[in-house]
Amino acid sequence: MKFGVSLLMAAATMFGVVATASAQQTLQQVRQRGSLNCQVGLPTPGFYALAANGTWSGMDVDVCRAVAAAIFDDPSKVQYQSVTSAVRFTSLANGESDMLSRTTTWTAVRDGQLGLEFAGVNFYDGQGFVVPRASNITSARQLDGATICVLTGTTTELNLADYFRANNMRFTAVTNENVNVLVETYLGGGCDAYTNDKSGLAARRSAFPTPNDHIILPETISKEPLGPVVRHGDNNWGDIVRWVLYGMIEAEEMGVTSANVTQMLQSPNPGIKRLLGVEGNVGQGMGLPADFMVRVLRHIGNYGETYERNVGANTPIGIPRERSLNALWTNGGILYAMPFR
Amino acid sequence: MSDAPLVFAPRPADPPPPSTIGVVGWMRANLFSSVPNAILTFLGIYIFYVVVSAIVNWALVNAVWEAENRRQCLDMVGRSGACWPGVAAWIPNLIYGLYPKDQVWRINTGFLILIAWAVPLWLPRVRSKVAIGLSLVLAYPFLASYFFHGGQQTLVWTALIALGATAFAWTWLTSLAEMRFGLGFGPLVARLFGAADDERARRIGWGALAALYVLTFVIVSQLDFVEVQTRFWGGLFLTLVISGIGIAFSLPAGVVLALGRRSEMPLIRVFCVTFIELFRSVPLITILFMFNTMLPLFLPEGVEVNRLLRAIVAVCLFASAYMAEIVRGGLQAIPKGQYEAAAAMGLGFWQSTSLIILPQALRIMIPSIVGNFIGLFKDTTLVSIIGLFDLLSMSRAVGEDTRWLGLFIEPFFFITLIYFVFCFLMSQYSLNLERRLGEGQRR
Amino acid sequence: MSQSTAIRRPATPPLRLGTLANDATVRSVFYQAVTFVCVVGLIWYLVSNTIANMATRGMSAGFDFLDVSAGFNIAFTLIPYREGDSYLRVFQVGIANTLLVAAIGVVFASILGLVVGLGRLSTNWLIRTLARWYVEILRNTPLLLQIIAWYFGVFNLLPLPRASVDLGGVMYLNNRGAYFPAPVPGEGFGLVLLALVAALIGAVLLHLWARQRFRATGRPFPSVLVGIALVLVAPTLVYLLLGAPLTWDWPVLRGFNFQGGFSVPPAFCALVVALSIYTSCFIAEIVRAGIQSVGHGQTEAARALGVKPSRTMRFIILPQAMRVIIPPLISQYLNLTKNSSLAIAIGFPDLVSVWMNTSLNQSGRAIPIVAMTMGFYCVVSLAVSFVLNSYNRRILLRER
């Protein structure tokens, strides 16, 4: 009985608590620990892939590695935490992870209500559908009444519902949190279409028994700006992650790569000088050394390099970058770093 | 009335009708004794055929055994046959998780030590089985954790590891001595030194143990294993670690809870009942979930609890609640006369419990304990949901490997077989144990 | 103290610590006090930490999110739900789905368990062996894997909607689910239901009367048959008198799939089948042990008295076996309910899947969501064990 009473009291006290305050300096904790706790998702090719020897690689993993390189000058000082999408924000909020970098869509509710802060966008994605060619469907508008396989616990699930509501159509969802289960269900005919972010659709389709029997519909039904996330409240930590990411994009724009970063230190271009910490001191305000971007570029490379290495046209994922949203703004895309000054 | 005695010479019995002996007879008696029985038989054969032929076709006949990647498998047989090369490439990971390949021998050695330690428990003529069993449960974890985790040794840590190593050495020395001479290790050494009286013999025995400890301490302090953090643990290895710790912890905790539940002190009883009922009434998945996401909140800021530890704490508490009910069942099966006799002999609560009641109760409980262990072993599949790379998550990772993208059913089939083999062996052992233990009780 | 001179009370020993430590009451109070302080202290410590941590990390524990619109689709809902409904509705949908799976699973598991349990005692060698291997194989593989195996091995392999398995033109089966006609009650259908309830009550009363008469006079009355007839005939009569106020909503193949009617998704079928089969293994063993626990002499005695085998089973073996069967059966039913939480593996929207997974992820309120989930399972478990325990107490052997 006493136990129950005290539980009730505890519960009553807890419900009153809705407060926001500054957390202990994350950077300090990371330095003390000697490694960065970076949360990724369950293994997914291209973004956070797990090799048989236990190493992680991918677009999002490179963001973790870049932050670790900026802090420690050693990109291997990362502890990867691979958790299901259901607990991703809780694991960040309860202090277990220092940041998460796992194809997470930036939304107002997440940013505003869940105690999260989005540090930028490292991949612009959008949701699409795969359908069997034999079904003669050529547009998402023809999917009224269809059964659709969708990954649960994601914005994809919400967008799907929105799209059908907006177009006054009905659908039945088959949900799961394991992409392979969904793909297997779709291939077995358990659903009429499979929906996910388009970045993943092409790669998945290439692993179908007969890829040419399936087509990706032209519609993109949602905006999916994916990027790294940190806890709300520690603004300095958010700045570090944000400017490491922007630095990588800026470096590509200025033509600084992992190969030429040492020569570039002598560059007369004031922009490059500021980026590499030769002039000015962007890093100091964030508690990082002035040359933090040199470390990042030397170990990881600029944005274009990680893109081509992980998801570019020459990888099995094969997402061409030309004329896509992820091209630099100077090349017709919308990738745009805030001025590094 | 004739004088001659009547002799009844029985006519030799007719041979059994041919239809009741041999294969035909056996079939008639066992398979086709009546029309419904015959229908059942044919139905049984049909179901058996359909299931087995489908599995054999997929897993063996149509399967691909050699390929570079999944694309090749698909080009060869499509989805009608299994693609085993992907599973084969990942087998080391399915068993050891992400453990560094050059350190895997440490896991193997650790488990070999466990087996070697347990062997004397089955050897005849070894008398110190209780002591050996206790040393196994109490000292093995130190040794194992060093083998599995490694890293820097501090003085206390070295002392504890040496304790484990000493206990292991003592186990085997004692069992060898007992098998060969019928004497424990200590008394044997004492006899070799020609001890005059019991007091000296005991002293020599302890001295020998101390010498053994110093020796192992020196050896252990020379060992230098690279640290392998728990986040690299996975696969079958992790599954065994979690369920092993769970069962080892839950047994004493279950005994305490069960005694508490039967206690005459109302407050203690209420606490125990609340704990047991609370943990038994919710699914393990919710407990794991709560511990995983909430434990960091329960602890003061800056204290970081490793993910594996959180899962283990959850599994231990869950298993303890179940074990408590098993122990309670065992305690209830002890006739009241035993309690009364113990009380009449003037034994207090702890004496009567530890000397009279528990030894009898534990013996009755062994089959249920093994059953509980099987359950726990199967339930560890759930830790995959909170992001530990156990057997199930590892099998999922195969299908996300770029080379084997989408390979999902095959690794799954493979780990199902692993689970089945382990659980089946354990359940057969438990049945065997039940039969042997029952023999003494049967009248 | 009226007779103070007659009885001399034993001299109170001088109060010493040693004496106190050996006093049973003092010791008991001391232990309890220590435990109480420890437990309460631990709880206080955990709660204060939680409050502090939540404050610093800006987490919220309130229930205010419950009336926020959830916005996601749920594949199968027993009670009406639309995308715009609130999280509270999602919680209710999850509970309804979990209870539905548990209820159907319990029924099938009991039937299957009884059949397999009797099969294990069969005289047919093949049946006995098959039953044994059925139990051994299915009991020794994790349920999570079995659920996935049923989903992919069977229900995902069913034909596509256009080639549905047609079961008598009433029910259709394809890899999108099973489709049944749904009843649409018309005007006055409530009266039919009323008749049904009345007939049910009548049947129960009849059965009680028949049992009483049987006990008193020994004359049997076929109360079960008459009862069934009553339950069938009375509502049908009312139904026909009212002019058949019930229409059916038939599933029709339109567009991608069948529309209308009532349908359950393949994940539901896989879950129910896997749960029932897995649990039936344990129930089979319980039934077998229960029947074997009744001495063989009982069967022989009944035969000697000329009792028919079916009646031997019903009146002599089963009532005695039930005493052994009921307690472990209760815990198996509860296990089945708890195991239904594994639905998450194949995406059936049960409470854990739709509430502790999807809703938690979309709303981010870990503490209230986990607490509500655990609370639901606690309530169900305690309620079921309370009801079944009282039944168990009723059939318990009266020992003198």
From TrEMBL, chain A:
Keywords: Signal, Transport. Coiled coil: none annotated. Residues 1-23 form the signal peptide. SMART domains: PBPb. Residues 35-264 form the Solute-binding protein family 3/N-terminal domain. Pfam families: SBP_bac_3. The keyword Magnesium does not apply. PANTHER family: AMINO ACID ABC TRANSPORTER PERMEASE, AMINO-ACID ABC TRANSPORTER-BINDING PROTEIN YHDW-RELATED. Belongs to the bacterial solute-binding protein 3 family. This is Amino acid ABC transporter substrate-binding protein.
UniProtKB/TrEMBL annotation, chain B:
Residues 236-426 form the ABC transmembrane type-1 domain. Keywords: Cell membrane, Membrane, Transmembrane, Transmembrane helix, Transport. InterPro entries: AA_ABC_transptr_permease_3TM, ArtM/GltK/GlnP/TcyL/YhdX-like, MetI-like. It is a multi-pass membrane protein. The keyword Membrane applies. CDD domains: TM_PBP2. The chain crosses the membrane at residues 38-61, 82-99, 105-123, 130-148, 154-173, 204-223, 235-260, 267-288, 308-327, 364-392, 404-427. Its main location: membrane. PROSITE patterns: ABC_TM1 (PS50928). It is found in: Cell inner membrane; Cell membrane. The keyword Transmembrane applies. Belongs to the binding-protein-dependent transport system permease family. HisMQ subfamily. This is Amino acid ABC transporter permease. It comes from Falsiroseomonas oleicola.
Automatic annotation (TrEMBL), chain C:
Residues 95-388 form the ABC transmembrane type-1 domain. It is a multi-pass membrane protein. Keywords: Amino-acid transport, Cell membrane, Membrane, Transmembrane, Transmembrane helix, Transport. It is found in: Cell inner membrane; Cell membrane. InterPro entries: AA_ABC_transptr_permease_3TM (IPR010065), ArtM/GltK/GlnP/TcyL/YhdX-like (IPR043429), MetI-like (IPR000515). The chain crosses the membrane at residues 29-47, 59-79, 99-122, 143-161, 189-209, 221-242, 262-284, 366-388. Its main location: membrane. It holds the Pfam family BPD_transp_1. The keyword Transmembrane helix applies. Belongs to the binding-protein-dependent transport system permease family. HisMQ subfamily. This is Amino acid ABC transporter permease. It comes from Falsiroseomonas oleicola.
